[in-house]
Amino acid sequence: MKQMHIVIRSTDSQKELLAQLLENSSATVSWVDNGINPPEAAAYFDFCFEEEGYAFESVSHQPVFVNAVLVTSAELPANCIRFNGWNGFINQRLLEIATSNPANIEKSLPVMEAMNFKYINAPDEPGMMSARVVAMIINEAYFGLGDQISSKKEMDTAMKLGTNYPYGPFEWSEMIGLKKIHALLSKLSKSNARYTIAPMIHKELNDLFVDLS
Description:
Elements: E1 4-9, H1 12-21, E2 27-32, E3 43-46, H2 49-52, E4 64-67, E5 80-83, E6 94-98, H3 102-115, E7 118-121, H4 130-146, H5 152-163, H6 169-176, H7 178-189, H8 199-212
Parallel strand pairs: 1-2, 1-3, 3-4, 4-5, 6-7
Antiparallel strand pairs: 5-6
Helix pairs in contact: 4-6, 4-7
């Protein structure tokens, strides 16, 4: 397999996971803290886009994979490929990607091969596929919490044992971050009422804001 060099901007915890996932791949990696004067590479990955903004403005020809679950390709440069890099979604070496430019899919193939990753081509919509599903599950769990059906711990246990999910809904929420779940549901609920946000999500975020202030 041909060796390929990639550049990655990520958090320390993401770097630790990615280093493990890429250990037996043919990809070599440069880790950067920002996108200023990045080294030459065949592809670039920005895991911090949703928290810190776009990093690789100087890269115009090579593909830039952006952890952009909440926005669509219309809000990114033309050479960008969205992927779902939320915590808990890439552990199995599987990337869910989305782009409005078919040429970007072709550019993705050698990158995925070098990284020893598989990919799923998802709709270029907020949440793509898996994040939408998980956000809905989390939302329903918070509706249940508000109705006092059960506790968070019991619902997490029931989902893992009953559906063989790797995490329960509240475990997912903690891993991803409730703010991100709220932001995705807010976007989706504008065109589909079934994504209306559970009152307990609003309450928990409001309580968190009060605690932090």
